[in-house]
Design brief:
The chain is 44% helix and 2% strand. The protein is mainly α. The chain has a two-stranded parallel ribbon.
Length: 170
């Protein structure tokens, strides 16, 4: 998470970034070190405890789960590179492309012809598009109570999409 970031993972990202820096420091002194920014594992590890909604959220980010066999191959490749840090992270370019402008900066060069993400707003259900520049225009024509109701609808749409709820009502 020190590479791409993740909601609710600031302390984890900071710790991993520190370990990356430590590996670089050790390598600069001629000492052995390798820090790997793994993605989610398909079997075991922290990802094994994820709910179905969490797994769906990971899939939408474009990060594919790593099987043990693939993980060992990625580890061997990282060792052979002779670098201090590597990111053995299988990606789904199509899932990345559907994120539109929400692709982490470090991954933007991996996505060709990015496509804007289809949102619940396009289907009349809120979502990220509802929070764009047009939202200000929609709010301007409303009284205070109507503004509060619209903002609540937008926030609920964002939460439902982020947590992979089936609907805003869920």
């Amino acid at each position: 998470q020190g590479i791409a970031g993740g909601a609710g993972q600031a302390n984890y990202a900071a710790a991993n970034s520190y370990l990356d820096a430590l590996a670089q420091h050790r390598r600069a002194q001629g000492l052995p070190a390798l820090s790997l920014a793994w993605g989610p594992w398909a079997e075991g590890g922290m990802a094994a405890e994820l709910s179905e909604a969490d797994r769906n959220r990971f899939a939408r980010t474009g990060m594919k789960p790593i099987t043990p066999k693939h993980g060992l191959a990625l580890f061997d490749t990282a060792l052979a590179l002779g670098v201090s840090t590597a990111v053995p992270l299988p990606l789904d370019p199509q899932a990345l492309a559907t994120r539109g402008d929400d692709v982490p900066a470090i991954m933007r060069g991996l996505v060709r012809g990015r496509v804007r993400r289809a949102t619940a707003a396009a289907a009349g259900g809120g979502g990220a598009a509802a929070a764009g520049p047009a939202l200000g225009l929609r709010l301007a024509g409303l009284d205070a109570d109507e503004q509060a109701e619209l903002l609540l609808e937008v926030v609920r749409g964002e939460v439902a999409a982020t947590l992979d709820y089936g609907s805003v009502g869920a």
